[in-house]
Amino acid sequence: MPALRALRRHLPDHEIVLAAPERLAGAAAATGLVDRILGTRAAGREVPASLDWHGPPPEVAVDLHGNGPPSHLLLQRLRPHRLLAYRHDHTPGIPGPLWRPEEHERDRWCRLLRWYGMPADPGDLCIAPPREPSPAPGATVIHPGADAAARQWPAERFAAVAAALRRAGHQVVVTAGAAEGRLGRRVAAGAGLPPDAVLGGTADVPFARLCALVAEARCVVVGDTGLAHLASALRTPSVVLFGPVSPRLWGPPAAGPHRVLWHPEPDGDPLRPGDAHADRPDRRLLRIRVDEVLAAVESLTPGPAGGADGGSGRNG
Questions:
Q1: Among positive and negative, which fits the CA dihedral 104, 107, 109, 111?
Q2: CB-based burial label for 234 (10 Å; 0-12, 13-18, 19+)
Q3: 13: which DSSP letter?
Q4: Which of 1, 143, 240, 269 could crosslink 125 through cysteines, CB 3.0-4.6 Å?
C-alpha cells in the first residue's frame, strides 16, 4: 500500500498495472491505486516465467517482489524505459540501493522508491472502509488458516479461544480461505459455533465482503498471514500470532491497535528463526498459549461485548 500510494502520487497521469495473481484483483481494486491487474501464474511463491504484456514497453517497471535476478529479468524482458529495483551482483546493469535483510517490508519498498526520487511513507498504509455492509458487524473474527503450516496455530487452540470468547459474550465469526473449509468447520465445531459462523472455505470470501467484515470487527485473531495486514490497513484491533518469522519483518504497525505474540529463543536468529514455508507448525508459534491470546483480546476490547468500548474496530 505505501509503495503503490507513492507511485500514484509521483506518477498521477500514468496507468498503474499490478502484475499479480488474479485472485488479488479485488484487493488491488480496493486500494484505489491500481488501474488494472496483469494476471500471473506460478507455482507456490515462485516468480512467473513470463508476463502476458501487450503493447509498447512500459515507461516504468518497478520490482516490488524481491531482490533476485528472476524478478529483475522478468521485468527487463518487457524493455521498460526505466526499471526500479534493488541492486544485485547478477544483474549489474540495474542500479539501485542495497538490500537490507533485516528491513520491514513496508520500509523496504518505500526506501526503494525514495532512492529513485519518489517520496514514500511506510506509515501510509490505510485504506478506506468499504461501502458494503458487514455480514457480522461488531463480531470478533477468528482466522485459523495460513498459506503454510509453519504459520498455522493449532486448530484446537483457535477453537478454545473462540469458545472462551463466545462464553464471554462475543459474537464470533470464523473465516476460511479457498480450500480451508474443513479447518474452519473444525474450529467452529470445537468452539460450539453453528456452521453458518464460518465464512468462506470452498472459495475465498469475496474481498469486498471480507473487507466489510474486518472493517466493522470488534477484533481479529489471526496468524502471520494476509488477514492480519488487512486489519492493519483498516485500523481494526488485531491479535497476531508469530512463529518462524519476526514481527520486525512482517508485523503490524507498533502504534496501532494491535497485539503481537511471539516467543523466539534468546540466542537464535533474531529475524527468521524458522522456515516460514515449512509443512508443520513452527515451535515458536506453538509456545503461544490460549490464555495469552485471550488476555491480548481483552486488552484491545475492554467492556461488554457490543458495548460502547467493544463495537466497531474502525478508528477514524
A1: negative
A2: buried
A3: T
A4: 1
Cα gap 299→143, rounded to integer Å = 19
Contact 11, 5 (CB under 8 A): no
Domains of the chain: 2-115 (no CATH), 140-300 (3.40.50.2000)
Phi/psi-derived region of residue 161, left when phi > 0, alpha when psi is between -120 and 50, beta in every other case: alpha
- For 48-88, what is each residue's pLDDT tens digit? 999 999 999 999 999 999 888 999 999 999 999 999 999 99
Residues 185-243: tens digit of each pLDDT: 999 999 999 999 999 999 999 999 999 999 999 999 999 999 999 999 999 999 999 99
Q: How far is CA 190 from the centre of its chain?
A: 26
Residue 87, all three cell numbers:
541492486
Contact predicate 245/104, CB 8 Å: no
Cell, residue 16: 498503474
- CA 315 to chain centroid, in Å, comes to 19
pLDDT, one tens digit per residue, over 160-194 is: 999 999 999 999 999 999 999 999 999 999 999 99
Q: In the prediction, which pLDDT does 26 show?
A: 87
